[in-house]
Write a structure and sequence with these properties.
The chain has 14 helices and 13 strands. The chain is of the alpha/beta class. The N and C termini lie far apart (51 Å). The structure holds pyridoxal-5'-phosphate.
Length: 400
């Protein structure tokens, strides 16, 4: 009998760098080792009570589909939320999605044909390459270096990468995995290049308010790029509810939103209960995100107080989100991560981090880098960093 085949598209996908050590974690836990998980962007902080209350107060006898563009009251809550930043949007400019993940997918489908190109800055959130591969989009990376603070220095760096097939530029601000909060000048470079070359800007602002210096800087505040700009937004991180699976795509480009709406109709709707349950927190977003940001800043400082004293470790002090990239004095960070899970523990504890290689589109980068996510409380994080420090020392004694 012929073997049934799966698609080339699926075969091209990498395993998630964040999820690929689950089996080793399970085995370590079975041996009674506590694994501090600093690998995944799903924080320990409780989902706000407004959202939990919103879910439990749903009393309808039927969970109907929502309108494909989103429930009116939910969209109105986003409009009000954006108004708080001096950004004025109409309801037809916001479309509800199943998280930013679906927003990326819909956007790539709406702006590109197979074989078209989208410029990205690497390292970048690892699901972009996966979604691009599914859509037949070729990602063209511009490498930003840890040693240079991940700075985009000039227009030329982007212009060099533009071809006849380029459709857009992705900018994640603040960024996962680097924790970089993009500066106004850098964003102005992107805006200028996009406007001049007729390209879309796909601004992923999943972590918008989580910045440790200055004010949140949405690209929706920039002038003269209304037709170019697509903003992707999410409930997941700033409102601590990734499982609610909700985001929005925002754009003032009418042709684009009409296209996105057609795609949205084909998948019927984003979650109904989630849209209703997030209305209240969107209305009270500022005090909530302020407190959250202060907590992540505390965690960033704990991690960096330890890293700063570790010999051979190169870091960049993040200015936003809750991640950071670290260069280790090792040849292969995956081997170090496996060592931590299989061969090392300190007081029956170990640490799981993410290897960076799969956050790069170009091959051969990031093999000596890891990403840490500050997703544990201060007490646990302090302990986890002590274990991490001792683990690296032990690994270096074995594999100097
Ligand atoms: C930059 C970035 N974009 C999008 C997502 C996915 O967000 P969502 O849960 O809204 O699909 C993540 C999740 O980690 C992310 O870091």
């Amino acid at each position: 009998m012929n073997k049934l085949k799966i698609s080339i598209r699926v075969n091209k996908l990498n395993q998630s760098p964040i999820r690929k050590f689950f089996a080793l974690v399970e085995r370590a836990e079975k041996r009674g080792i506590k694994v501090f998980k600093l690998n995944i962007g799903d924080s320990d902080i409780e989902t706000p009570k407004e959202i939990l209350k919103g879910i439990s107060s749903f009393k309808n006898k039927n969970i109907h589909y929502a309108p494909s563009s989103g429930i009116k009251e939910h969209i109105e809550a986003w409009i009000k939320y954006y108004r708080g930043f001096g950004i004025y949007l109409g309801a037809e400019e916001i479309i509800s999605t199943v998280g930013v993940s679906e927003g990326i997918l819909m956007t790539f489908l709406a702006i590109s044909n197979p074989g078209d190109e989208v410029i990205v800055f690497e390292p970048l959130y690892a699901n972009y390459p996966a979604i691009a591969a599914m859509c037949g989009v070729k990602l063209v990376p511009i490498r930003l270096k840890l040693e240079n603070g991940f700075v985009l220095s000039s227009e030329k760096e982007i212009i060099r990468k533009i071809t006849k097939k380029t459709r857009g530029i992705v900018v994640i601000n603040p960024d996962n995995p680097t924790g970089k909060a993009w500066g106004k000048k850098e964003l102005e470079i992107i805006a200028k290049v996009a406007r001049k070359n007729n390209l879309y800007i796909i601004a992923d602002e999943t972590y918008r308010e989580i910045i440790f210096r200055g004010k949140p800087l949405s690209m929706l505040l920039f002038k003269n790029i209304d037709d170019n700009l697509i903003v992707l937004d999410s409930i997941s991180k700033r409102f601590l509810a990734p499982g609610i699976r909700l985001g929005v795509v925002v754009s003032k480009n009418k042709e684009f939103t009409a296209g996105i709406l057609k795609i949205a109709m084909s998948r019927l709707s984003a979650p109904t209960i989630g849209q209703l349950a997030t209305i209240q927190i969107l209305k009270k977003s500022r005090p909530f995100t302020k407190k959250l940001t202060a907590e992540f800043k505390k965690r960033r400082d704990i991690v960096n107080n330890v890293l700063r004293k570790m010999k051979g470790v190169v870091t960049y002090l993040p200015n936003g989100a809750f991640y950071q990239v670290i260069k280790l004095p090792v040849k292969d960070s995956e081997s170090f991560i496996k060592f931590m899970l299989e061969d090392f523990s300190y007081q029956r504890k170990t640490v799981l981090v993410s290897p960076m290689e799969d956050f790069y589109v170009s091959h051969g980068h990031g093999r000596d880098e890891i990403r840490i996510a500050y997703v544990l409380n201060v007490k646990e994080l302090n302990m986890a960093m002590e274990v991490f420090k001792r683990g690296l020392q032990a690994y270096l004694c074995l594999k100097p």
